[in-house]
Amino acid sequence: MEINGEFRRPERKLPDAADPALRIEAASISFGGIRALSEVSFSVPQSGFTAVIGPNGAGKTTLFNLICGFCRGAGEILKDGARIDPLPAHARAGLGIGRTFQTPTLIDGESALHNIMLGSNPLLSSGVFSSFFSMPKARREERRARERAEELLEHFGLGPVGSSPAGDLPHRQRRLIEIARSLAGDPTVLLLDEPAAGSHHSEAVIMLEQVAGYCAAQGIAVVLVEHNVQLVMQFAEDVVVLNFGELLAHGAPAVVKKDPRVISAYLGEEAA
Ligand SMILES: Nc1ncnc2c1ncn2[C@@H]1O[C@H](COP(=O)(O)OP(=O)(O)OP(=O)(O)O)[C@@H](O)[C@H]1O
User: Fold this and answer.
1) For strand 49-53 and strand 221-225, is the pairing parallel, antiparallel, or unpaired?
2) Which of 24, 29, 31 should be mutated for ligand 1, with most atoms under 8 A from CB?
């Protein structure tokens, strides 16, 4: 993304092609007596879709929370070869970890455009003082955030509803706004938590095609939590299967689909 010096881009390391975009190393976390993740290790390549699948309660969202810094556990998380697990959530966002949530978290009374602009926050450098007094730097940053949001609205076909309150829009468009908002923060790794939930299959395919096109062009690695196995098989190059917090399988979709442990724990004979 062009920044013209207005946005504070946190010191992002240029990825070495040899480093994975993300490396999860022995990630573990418990809530009371529940072992939500247990020694989970895998890598996410620099591009393409990695799907994380597994039954309800397998630990998928907890894994995202751990990567984003919304909760702390044991083990290491490396982005482009550098450890990020000691960092707070906002610093990880600044380093290029973007995410969406299972349940939409839009501000219903704000327009689609403003909701997307909020996603630029990890890149802003003007403080509360200069924003409050609308100083030139803050105005430039706001202009850039607006232009960026307008580009994203166009890409996702949301241009005509840019000024509509998010709360008035149908589910499919709300989902797209959430994705666009996370892309406004200029991530290099995008974590999508069940973006297709509640959408018809054909809508979900179009949505993921739009995401795939954008992320491929921008060099963004996507990690997708998804229960729709058909979508996973269509979009993911790599599949991680969790079960009761443990890594059950990891590999190419065609291989994982035939793994007897995955069939027994999650897919069932029919889906496989
Ligand atoms: N904050 C928390 N406090 C207590 N238990 C939690 C917390 N977060 C997650 N858990 C528990 O950890 C386990 C994993 O939950 P998680 O939400 O990560 O699963 P999931 O695979 O995302 O499930 P789903 O597909 O239903 O969204 C579950 O048993 C859940 O109840």
Assistant:
1) parallel
2) 31
Q: What is the 127 CA–ligand 1 centroid distance (Å)? A: 36
Count of structural domains within the chain: 2
Domain of 126, in residue numbers: 106-186
Can you give the pLDDT at residue 266?
80
Does the CB atom of residue 56 touch ligand 1 within 6 A?
yes
What is the 61 CA–ligand 1 centroid distance (Å)?
Answer: 7
**Residues of the chain predicted below pLDDT 70:** 1-17, 122-138, 269-272
- Among 37, 61, 70, name the best residue to mutate to test ligand 1's pocket (greatest count of ligand atoms within 8 A of Cβ): 61
The predicted-structure confidence for 180-222, as pLDDT tens digits, reads as follows: 999 999 999 999 999 998 889 999 999 999 999 999 999 999 9
What ipTM does the predicted assembly reach? Answer: 0.96
The pLDDT of residue 8: 47
The SS3 assignment for 225 reads strand
DSSP per position, 81-144: TEE-TTS-HHHHHHTTEEE--SS----TTSBHHHHHHHTTGGG----HHHHHTT-HHHHHHHHH
Kindly state whether residues 145 and 224 are assigned to the same domain: no
Clarify whether residues 215 and 174 are in a common domain: no
Is 54 touching ligand 1 by the criterion CB < 6 Å?
A: yes
Q: How far is the CA of 63 from the centre of ligand 1 (A)?
A: 9
* Domain end call among 186, 220, 236: 186
Domain presence at residue 7: no
Question: pTM of this prediction?
Answer: 0.88
